[in-house]
Specification:
Layout (H helix, E strand, L loop, with lengths): L1 H11 L2 H9 L14 H10 L3 H9 L8 H17 L3 H9 L8 H13 L3 H11 L9 H13 L5 H12 L6 H13 L3 H13 L6 H13 L3 H13 L6 H13 L3 H13 L6 H13 L3 H9 L10 H13 L3 H13 L6 H13 L3 H12 L8 H9 L12 H30 L28
Length: 466
């Protein structure tokens, strides 16, 4: 118990002072703090996992040069780091401090999206209600759509239909196609297929044509429910309605075939894409690799992986995750180790679940020194509050009693007591981070009124460092 108390106290140190310095203005003469451009801030924030340092980086951004999109991105990253550290109250303070007295709709929409990144959709609703009287009348669908998409991203699907009707009437907001896309997404995520079709009928009655994005969401839902004939029928309906399939629509079919280990079917869809003038992207190739791996064609998967750069589709976090997982499962730890090194050099460390299987495979194969080195390298990437799962793994593998990079036995025991809850928090919040790289459904800016995507399969979602 003493070790646990000491650990928890150590985690609370420094954070309050740093946050207050960041959030509060002061009349004292400020020290010369170098400002960061939005592009530099984006790069550094993505690589910074310590919550306090992330907030400090946000404070150093040249805010005068920020667009609504850049504001959303920077705020989302900083707020997400605070939330992962369990500091939800601090995340709320950070976000609310950026809402202007008379916000513009794009600026408010960006902040509402950032609330979702921190897992605080109800706080976003409070912020919307508080800011709505200051918005120009009538309120456009933009902040309305941003708010609703946040509830979808936070998996509060049942709230979306209620809020859709309630807020549109309360604030005299006329929903647009993107609003209905979010409503369809909410229904599809809980397999309410009939209600999703009712939304399509309602749109037509109101003179709004269903979009490719809406059809893509519904087709994706059918595939995930193993309703392939219904998915095919929706595809034909989409074509008949005049909606042209885009990259995301084709990728939904690619994902289905890839997860079912059918590389020939994936290649057939890719041929259709080429004929339609639609270029494959990294997601397309990721699931072609997945199909090869599931079909046991590991050499084909490795050859495709090596050619991604030549195809103009660089590997993303999902690429590293899937390839490392399958290579480890097939016992090819030399190739998996090479991919791990590349992922580290690109600052795209695979999720904890994948890394855990990789390290356990190394250890069981007698490659203990390499397993320890991998753990040591990954731990250097993350702050202490995100390492509980790794420290528990070290104990399970018997690494705690060693010298060098290993941790004291007492601290191992203390970490085990808090690791499960922290790992669960990190896993839940990592869903959003990886969705754009893992799903066949495209992610578009919520500031433009389109809903963010979401995946629902553990097979498709990296769960984040524990």
């Amino acid at each position: 118990m003493a070790a646990l108390a000491s650990l928890l106290l150590r985690r609370r140190s420094r954070r309050d002072d740093v946050l207050l310095r960041t959030l509060c203005t002061t009349t004292a003469t400020p020290t010369a703090t170098p400002t960061l451009s939005p592009s530099a801030a984006k790069t550094r924030l993505r690589r910074e996992y310590d919550a306090d340092r992330a907030v400090s980086l946000l404070d150093a951004i040249d805010t005068a040069s920020l667009s609504a999109g850049s504001t959303r991105h920077a705020l989302s990253l900083a707020a997400r780091r605070l939330a992962r550290a369990g500091r939800y109250a601090d995340a709320e303070k950070l976000l609310s401090s950026h809402i202007q007295a008379s916000p513009t709709e794009p600026h408010l929409s960006a902040i509402l999206c950032s609330y979702a990144s921190a897992g605080l959709p109800e706080k976003a609703l409070d912020a919307f209600r508080a800011a709505a009287p200051s918005l120009p009348s009538p309120i456009s669908p933009m902040p309305f759509n941003a708010l609703l998409s946040g509830f979808v991203r936070c998996r509060r699907h049942s709230r979306v239909p209620v809020l859709f009707e309630e807020l549109s009437k309360e604030f005299s907001i006329t929903p647009n196609a993107a609003s209905y896309a979010t409503l369809v997404k909410a229904h599809c995520m809980v397999h309410q297929d009939a209600k999703a079709h009712e939304v399509l009928a309602r749109m037509r009655e109101e003179g709004i044509s269903p979009t490719t994005t809406i059809y893509t969401t519904m087709i994706d839902s059918m595939y995930k429910q193993k309703k392939r004939e219904e998915a095919k029928a929706l595809w034909e309906q989409m074509l008949e309605s005049g909606c042209k399939p885009d990259q995301a629509a084709y990728n939904v079919r690619v994902v289905n075939h890839g997860l079912n280990g059918k590389p020939d079917d994936v290649l057939q869809v890719m041929a259709e894409m080429e004929a339609a003038g639609v270029e494959p992207d990294t997601i397309t190739y990721n699931f072609l690799m997945t199909a090869y791996c599931k079909a046991g064609k590991m050499d084909d998967a490795k050859a495709l992986y090596s050619s991604l750069g030549d195809k103009g589709c660089p590997a993303n976090a999902a690429t590293y995750k899937h390839m490392m997982a399958y290579l480890s499962a097939h016992g090819d730890f030399d190739a998996a180790l090479e991919i791990f090194r590349e992922s580290m050099s690109k600052h795209k460390v695979p999720d904890f679940k994948t890394m855990k299987g990789f390290v356990e495979g190394l250890a069981k194969g007698g490659r203990v020194a390499e397993a320890k080195q991998v753990i040591s390298e990954v731990k250097k990437k993350f702050p202490d509050n995100m390492l509980s799962g790794w420290k528990k793994l070290e104990k399970e593998l018997g690494f705690c009693s060693d010298n060098g990079d290993a941790i004291p036995q007492a601290e191992c025991a203390a970490e085990e007591a808090v690791s499960e809850a922290e790992a669960a928090t990190a896993e839940a919040l990592e869903l959003e981070d990886s969705a754009a790289e893992e799903t066949g459904v495209s992610e578009e800016s919520a500031a433009d009124g389109t809903p963010a995507p979401e995946t629902s399969s553990d097979e498709e979602v990296p769960l984040g460092p524990a």
